[in-house]
Amino acid sequence: MPYDIDPRLLRAFTAVADELHFTRAAARLYVAQQALSRDIRRLERELGATLFVRSTRRVALTADGERLLPYARRVLTAQDELTAAFRPVPERPLLVDVGVPIGTAHGVLEAARGRVPDSCELVARFHSGLTGAAAEVAAGRLDVSFGRVAALPAGVRAGLDHQPVRLEPMAVLLRDDHPLAARPAVPLAELAGETLYAAAGNPQTAEWTDLAERLFAGRGIAMAEPFPEIEGSQEFVRVVRKQGWSVLASVEFIEVPGMVLRPIVDPVPLSPISMVWRRGLRHPGLEALRAAARELGERHAWSALPGSAWWLPEADARVMGVRG
């Protein structure tokens, strides 16, 4: 009795046992009928038993063939399970929320795509803010997002990991005929008496509205009245132009026809951007994103403070590791 039967021979045997026809069994295995017959004869020699009764009109299992069949099926099932357990599994796509197709998050995503093989897919999602996206990340419906971690509810934040990415200077979007539009930069004090839109009324971007409220407090800057959630950059442009708003923004922002983007100075208000993902997530795309964020941060000094005149809430400074 042999101690090492080639599973290929057992696969040939079960195919013939199933089909009871050598031609159909050979077609099922994508082999020549002559090769299949040779494998069956070899198996019969190794077992010392006749497995099939053959005639010009029919093929039938012998008693030994009937006895072998359940054993052969169990061996082949075990082999298939073993192969599947160690077969490389293609990574599922990593879903990455970048907000808009411009700016810090989008730049990190594009850089990360250059770090992964073609088999690893990083798919962009365009949510409107971290408040909404973080809940999706925690629930497993989204993998990665970017934004202001300090403002997240404690219950949501507990299930997330994060990596500080950038202290992004803030700016103001003004109509091109606005008195401050001619300046290369706008001192924060010059915005006193202005009303700025900062996504009030959009529950998905509560972290941005909260940051604006903290910045405006005591400076005579008013918050535009709450407005329903605006989805998509095209709709944002349409609404902003129609409403005639000035807008609190970041220094990297979508273009709005008829409006200009001006950095805010004296002090420079900072928008803290972290990369956020579900705790315990393992994916080569995540490692590529983290590496890309570090590389871009070092290259462009994203964590550097803009001199002595800057503004950042204390809680955000702790999250971002800011000293001083």
TrEMBL record:
One Pfam match: HTH_1
InterPro entries, per the entry: LysR_HTH_N, LysR_subst-bd, WH-like_DNA-bd_sf, WH_DNA-bd_sf
GO CC, alphabetical: protein-DNA complex
The keyword Ubl conjugation is assigned to this record: no
Sorted UniProt keywords: DNA-binding, Transcription, Transcription regulation
Chain ranges passing through the membrane: none
GO molecular function: DNA binding; DNA-binding transcription factor activity
Superkingdom per UniProt: Bacteria
Domain HTH lysR-type: start-end pairs: 5-62
PANTHER family: HCA OPERON TRANSCRIPTIONAL ACTIVATOR HCAR, TRANSCRIPTIONAL DUAL REGULATOR HCAR-RELATED
Family: Belongs to the LysR transcriptional regulatory family.
Name used for this protein in its record: LysR family transcriptional regulator
Organism: Streptomyces inhibens
